[in-house]
């Protein structure tokens, strides 16, 4: 097992902090020292050597710790754009200088992600700049221009889009597309499990790689901590190019507190693409008895938007392999090969066939104040709505800006509804979401708790015309910390399908009310307050 330098330093500082505390207690009271000396039967000579060593270390340890605290505080001060998160870390470092510093080394802002963020953002800005000399299409609206300026999200026309509303339909379509691959497969996932579904995907990738297809597979090292070395080794042995995004030590214990690659992208032969909320694992097929039915939303795309989805993949892939990944595989000299569409009228892969001629923008975002295209897009959709905004999200920690946007829209007469889960898959985030429910209810937002299993979809529909589906939750982590990708679409037909799915989900919900929430047990209110305190880091 590889141990990172950061983790090693953190462990060393924890041990050093424990030793300092023990020496401090010993200086107040001699009896613990005598008890330890007697119990361990150490000679006076050994203890003398230890005291001598401590005297030498003590001359420098406070200076070293002081420098570490200052460096950590400066890093927080300059890196963190969220003032609540910055204040929380600074408060922790000042109040608990030793333990707080060790916590920061393990869970704080990941400095190694800065080069990734800067290079990917610079690439996106370059795309936008290259297009700036051309006149914007007449049909371009404020949202379209905003997304292009924010992240270089190129507006595309003439796409075919199919909405997939659960794991069975989604992975049936994905596996069908993978099996048909002739030239390239690009896959990027936050979480990949080595279970039945994960094994099926692995076998398909191995089969295609052995058939001469160039397969690139990118997974997040923390989100996919259960993938196992055997899984990766089998892929590599078959010729699949595999990369882990920013590996860290002790991944299981750091899963919620790093800048992570939260995207879910599949691009096959440059002709068909998939993006949405579903990771790879049996849980997402509804096979986890604890979570029950897994309700999620994914998109199947054909058309020029697939090229932009591929660009998002290749930009991050290029950083992970330590160089440029080359041009996107679609739209090049070879025209994309025909891909299966799941049969007439959607077949078994969807309730309806694809909607043709859809304008789509693929917006990507990541940590840092200048790389928040998805948050900007959400805000624009909410602020521009005149009649309704319907949102489905597994986590409701929108931050002050989006919370105010939702509240102002509701108070202005817009029909604002939000569907969230009624059960927790991440405890602290669930508690924080519950606190935000009260705030939104007081401002006229209607909130519905889903009782039909676990809802994990990340969708927004505004005025029955503009829709968004992708990987970004309505929470601070997705909007400010993680790497995400979201499709923004303008289509009345697609919006109608998503609204129909929303109403179907609403039938399985219980609407929240302020009067009902006032009668909650005290422990629930305490949990919500605790979640709120940590919401800036969630």
Explain what you see:
With 538 residues, this protein is of the alpha/beta class. It folds into three domains: 5-107; 113-143 and 157-359, Endonuclease, Chain A (2-Layer Sandwich), CATH 3.30.870.10; 373-537, Endonuclease Chain A (Endonuclease, Chain A, 2-Layer Sandwich), CATH 3.30.870.10. It is built from 18 helices and 18 strands. Helix 4 (83-95) crosses helix 5 (97-107), helix 12 (373-384) runs parallel beside helix 13 (399-411) and helix 14 crosses helix 18. Residues 1-6, 28-33, 110-118, 132-139, 251-256 and 328-350 have low confidence and may be disordered.
Would you summarize the structure shown here?
This protein has about 550 residues and is an alpha/beta fold.
Span between N and C termini?
Answer: 27 Å
CATH top level label of the largest domain: Alpha Beta
The largest pleated sheet is described as:
16 strands, mixed
Mean pLDDT: 79
> How does the helix and strand content classify structurally?
alpha/beta
Number of domains: 3
CATH fold description of the largest domain: Endonuclease, Chain A
The percentage of residues in β strands lies in 15-25%
Radius of gyration: 26 Å
């Amino acid at each position: 097992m590889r141990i990172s330098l950061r983790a090693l330093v953190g462990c060393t500082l924890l041990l050093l902090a424990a030793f300092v505390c023990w020496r401090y207690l010993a200086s107040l009271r001699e009896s613990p020292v005598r008890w330890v000396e007697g119990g361990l039967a150490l000679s006076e000579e050994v203890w003398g050597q230890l005291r001598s060593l401590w005297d030498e270390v003590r001359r420098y340890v406070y200076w070293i710790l002081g420098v570490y605290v200052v460096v950590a505080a400066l890093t927080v001060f300059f890196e963190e754009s969220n003032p609540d998160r910055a204040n929380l870390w600074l408060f922790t470092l000042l109040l608990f200088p030793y333990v707080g510093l060790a916590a920061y080394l393990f869970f704080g802002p990941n400095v190694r992600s800065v080069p990734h963020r800067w290079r990917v953002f610079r690439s996106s800005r370059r795309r936008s700049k290259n297009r700036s000399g051309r006149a914007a299409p007449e049909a371009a609206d404020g949202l379209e221009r905003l997304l292009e300026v924010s992240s270089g999200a190129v507006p595309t026309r003439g796409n075919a889009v199919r909405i997939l509303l659960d794991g069975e339909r989604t992975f049936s379509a994905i596996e069908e597309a993978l099996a048909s691959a002739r030239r390239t497969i690009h896959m990027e996932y936050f979480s990949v499990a080595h279970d039945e579904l994960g094994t099926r995907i692995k076998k398909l990738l191995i089969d295609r790689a052995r058939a001469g297809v160039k397969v690139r597979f990118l997974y997040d090292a923390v989100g996919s901590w259960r993938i196992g070395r055997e899984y990766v080794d089998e892929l590599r042995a078959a010729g699949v190019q595999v990369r882990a995004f920013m590996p860290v030590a002790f991944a299981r214990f750091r899963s919620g507190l790093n800048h992570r690659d939260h995207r879910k992208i599949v691009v096959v032969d440059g002709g068909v693409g998939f993006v949405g909320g579903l990771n790879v694992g049996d849980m997402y097929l509804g096979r986890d008895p604890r979570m029950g039915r897994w309700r999620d939303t994914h998109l199947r795309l054909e058309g020029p938007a697939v090229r932009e989805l591929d660009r998002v993949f290749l930009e991050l892939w290029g950083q992970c392999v330590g160089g440029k990944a080359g041009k996107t595989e679609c739209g090049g000299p070879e025209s994309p090969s025909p891909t299966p569409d799941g049969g007439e009228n959607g077949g078994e892969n969807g309730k309806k066939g694809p909607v043709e001629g859809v304008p789509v923008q693929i917006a990507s975002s990541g940590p840092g104040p200048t790389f928040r295209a998805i948050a900007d897009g959400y805000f624009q959709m909410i602020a521009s709505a005149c009649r309704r905004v319907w949102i489905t999200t597994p986590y409701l920690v929108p931050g002050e800006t989006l919370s105010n946007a939702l509240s102002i829209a509701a108070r202005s007469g817009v029909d604002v509804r939000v569907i969230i889960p009624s059960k927790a898959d991440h405890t602290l985030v669930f508690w924080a979401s519950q606190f935000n429910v009260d705030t939104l209810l007081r401002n006229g937002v209607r909130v519905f708790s889903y009782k039909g299993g676990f809802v994990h979809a990340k969708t927004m529909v505004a005025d029955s015309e503009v829709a968004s589906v992708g990987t970004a939750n309505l929470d601070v982590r997705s909007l400010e910390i993680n790497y995400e990708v979201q499709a923004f679409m303008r289509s009345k037909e697609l919006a109608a399908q998503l609204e129909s799915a929303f109403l179907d989900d609403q039938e399985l919900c219980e609407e929240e009310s302020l009067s009902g929430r006032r009668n909650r047990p005290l422990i629930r209110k305490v949990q919500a307050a605790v979640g709120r305190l940590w919401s800036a880091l969630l």
